Amino acid sequence: MKKLILVIIILAFVICARSETTDITNSLFSFSQNDAVQPQPLTIPLTLIQSAASKGAVCLDGTLPGYHFHPGSGSGANSWLIQLEGGGWCNTIKSCVFRKTTRRGSSKFMEKQLPFTGILSNKAEENPDFFNWNRIKVRYCDGASFSGDSENESAQLQFRGQKIWLAAMDELMSKGMNKANQALLSGCSAGGVASIIHCDEFRNLFPQSTKVKCLSDAGFFLDAVDVSGGRTLRNLFGGVVNLQEVQKNLPQSCLSKLDPTSCFFPQNLIDHVQTPLFLLNAAYDAWQVHESLAPRSADPHGSWNDCKSNNAKCNSSQIQFLQDFRNQMLNDVKGFSSSSQTGLFINSCFAHCQSERQDTWFADDSPLIDNKPVAIAVGDWYFDRQAVKAIDCAYPCDTTCHNLVFNVHRSAIVDSNSQPSSDESFSMMYSHSTKLTYTGLYMLSVLLLITCSL
Questions:
Q1: Which residues form the signal peptide (predicted)?
Q2: Helix axis angle, 24-31 relative to 433-453, nearest 10°?
Q3: Residue-wise pLDDT tens digits, 151-165
Q4: CATH pick for 42-434 out of 3.30.1330, 3.40.50, 1.25.40, 3.90.79
């Protein structure tokens, strides 16, 4: 197929070269500008919180934390959306020492500009309900979902996630958030865990007259059994909680019944959140498939490698294992979903962080449940336009998914217990992107031929 398309393109150029028309270049330029190139998203500069150091609110390496802020306008001038960045966790001294040499542990390595896409977009056609709000992305540099409070002097590590959270909120309140008439706290992945942990704290920043809700995207991490029968994620979370003393900032209503590690799992936290909360999650969350269900430590022979890289390569027994995982997720949200103030969007996709990406948040081919994309579902719930309890049918029924395909490039950071490093990086692309590339090449070749025939 690729060879055929290339032959067509070459043939088109040959024909064009022999044509007498003088508008070939302009025609091609017009096509690439108007049709092939997507508009560049808004990019927002990094702002460091200068007052943070005096409050002890610093990244793992002691540098200042930061955020990216785009002011609201018009009807959204007094509305505030806070997104807490995700990026895994560090659960040992070794993994945290490595982490402070990255943007996940030091503002020295953070990008100076970040694109605002998806729920952070400033375009109504990309983000219909929140495009003109004050939109903030708070950077993640503590390794414990903005919830730790301790230090390790010998390793020169500061575990100050809770203080970073408080310093960021203080900063934003001083910039006008104290006058908000409506606010939404969101977060993705580890930030999605943080948005659950801090949801009621966020509510308490505002008077009762302010409409306040929370959104957790890809933050519903399950205390699940891995493919070897172990509990990889429980071991990881246990290390995070103990190392960074996260229990100081978990709800006492949970700690009175369960151990601190259990209270770091969202499945055990959500019943203790009083503020309206929306759970957005893929039923076959890509990160959890890779790092909780079938990590290298649980699958040393790599029998899950093909399935992890592409869900289309999973065999029947692997699919059944993943269906059991989905069933556990649905069971864990049953009580939560019965409340009139909660919202759900659980689609049967192999995805992660669907509110951050434009193509999964709101686009022509966005994932749908009952013909409703994520952005509209969240908006309907936030503005009380409609109750949203959207749970997809089981895989593979959903043809609208943007399933992730992985090229895995693992870092060398593995702790002494062979736990997966939270700093393992993945090269990800959506499975339909290759099809789009071929389609684009084909369209370009046809356009060339048409242009030359004019």
A1: 1-19
A2: 150
A3: 999 999 999 999 999
A4: 3.40.50
